[in-house]
Design a protein that fits this description.
This protein is an alpha/beta fold. It is built from 15 helices and eleven strands. Helices cover about 45% and strands about 15% of the residues.
């Protein structure tokens, strides 16, 4: 059963009617609020993580969840899949996992009508709406590449045949930031395929107390699905229609370029602590993330505050710190925080140039 009050039919996105846009925004805000309530029945805290997951889903992006074991990353993803009325699969990545183990393979079977043997494709666990790639850095690069192809192209190739993945297709990969022995770290070019690098942190003292009370008592509560696949696909199209003012585009551009130590306008701070900056895909994700966040907050326009809100998860895996930064304990998050202070708003620049 889908949550009442939000139509199960796709939103008519071909119409330019403001009423249609208002209906879509109201429906998304209501659905988001209900989802957070339902998730709160199972997951304590992690509000920023939940919002980043929803933003990535609405932007057709993918998330890399980084956190130590035991922080309910798997439970969070499975809970979201139930609320979205989507199929969910979990793959535990191991060193012996092969690409065919996740994509599927051709099986030789007998044709009951002709009696001849023929190959039939048996889909792997990748054929689901939401895929949890648990400890993605524990599998060899060949298997990582198979997953990353599916993330980018939304299809898999087995032999000479190509098979489309279900839509929407959303990958959440997890990494343990502490244990790195026997792992295959994702190179920067592959990390760039993830829209967000989301940090799942320890709960507060109050939240941890609530976790202990809830998880040692009765059975977990039943959840009510909020959205289905057609609604999500429609809302993904709505996100693309959110208008963005020129100064917001300029701010996303300036923030991205400010991470590159080779640029002439790069600050001394960046040149000292960064060896590599973010590419244009970072700016694209800043804009798309800002659009989705604006909708989730009930607005049909983006602001520079939306850009700032998604800056850390968008940029933290797209910049590389220097040895100097590592030796001084300066992380990528520290650099991004400083950049948000240093990069001036485009409107401030225009006002100064005009002498206002």
């Amino acid at each position: 059963m889908i949550e009442p009050g939000f139509s199960s039919e796709p939103i008519d996105l071909d119409s330019n009617s403001k009423a249609k846009e208002a209906q879509a925004i109201k429906g998304l805000v209501n659905a988001s609020s209900r989802m957070k309530e339902e998730i709160g029945k199972v997951i304590v805290g992690q509000q920023d993580v939940v919002e980043q997951l929803l933003i990535a889903l609405l932007c057709r992006g993918h998330c890399l969840l980084v956190g130590v074991p035991g922080l309910a990353k798997t439970l969070l993803v499975s809970t979201v899949s139930q609320l979205l009325h989507l199929s969910f699969r979990r793959i535990q990545f191991t060193p012996d996992l092969m690409p065919s183990d996740i994509t599927g393979t051709d099986i030789l079977q007998d044709d009951p009508e002709t009696g001849r043997k023929q190959f039939q494709f048996m889909p792997g666990p990748m054929f689901s709406h939401i895929l949890l790639a648990d400890e993605i850095n524990r599998t060899p690069p060949k298997t990582q590449a198979a997953l990353l192809e599916a993330m980018q192209e939304k299809h898999v190739t087995v032999g000479s045949s190509t098979y489309r993945l279900p839509a929407p297709f959303f990958v959440l990969a997890t990494q343990n930031p502490i244990e790195q022995e026997g792992t295959y770290p994702l190179p920067e070019a592959q990390l760039d395929r993830f829209m967000f690098n989301t940090i799942v942190d320890y709960p507060t003292a109050e939240e941890e107390l609530e976790i202990l009370i809830r998880t040692t008592g009765d059975a977990p509560p039943k959840l009510t699905p909020i959205l289905n696949d057609k609604q999500i696909l429609a809302l993904q199209d709505v996100v693309r229609k959110v208008p963005v003012a020129e100064h917001v585009f300029m701010y996303a551009r300036d923030l991205t370029r400010a991470t590159r130590p080779g640029e002439a306008e790069a600050s001394s701070f960046v040149k000292e602590y960064l060896s590599w900056g973010a590419g244009p895909r970072a700016g694209q994700n800043l804009i798309n993330g800002a659009k989705a966040r604006a909708l989730l907050h009930g607005r049909f326009h983006t602001t520079t505050e939306d850009i700032k809100a998604v800056a850390h998860p968008v940029l933290r895996h797209r910049i590389v710190t220097t040895f100097q930064a590592d030796s001084e304990g300066i992380s990528t998050d520290d650099v991004i925080t400083q950049l948000l202070k240093d990069v001036r708003m485009p409107l401030d620049k225009l006002s100064k140039k005009a002498g206002v």
